Amino acid sequence: MAGLGEITIIHGVGTGAVKNRITGMLRKHPHVKTSRPGIYGEGGVGVTIVEVK
Q1: pTM for the full model?
Q2: Neighbours of 37 (CB within 10 A)
Q3: 6-52: which CATH topology?
Q4: Contact 52, 33 (CB under 8 A)
Q5: In terms of DSSP H, where are the helices of 1-53?
Q6: In the prediction, which pLDDT does 3 show?
Q7: How confident is the model over 1-52, as pLDDT tens digits?
Q8: Distance from the Cα of residue 34 to its chain's centroid
Q9: Is 17:25 a contact under the CB 8 Å cutoff?
């Protein structure tokens, strides 16, 4: 995984459809350790922070 420990996926806010789709895919992905919404300063709910195995 190119030595990355954490990645930020920018999906925006909108209706939440893209965020929901991404979250569902991340739950099943074998290289994902954890995922969470961004906090203030990271992009808030418009981003998802992913910790890679």
Answers
A1: 0.86
A2: 14
A3: Ribosomal Protein S8; Chain: A, domain 1 (3.30.1370)
A4: yes
A5: 17-28
A6: 81
A7: 578 899 999 999 999 999 999 999 999 999 999 999 999 999 999 999 999 9
A8: 9
A9: no
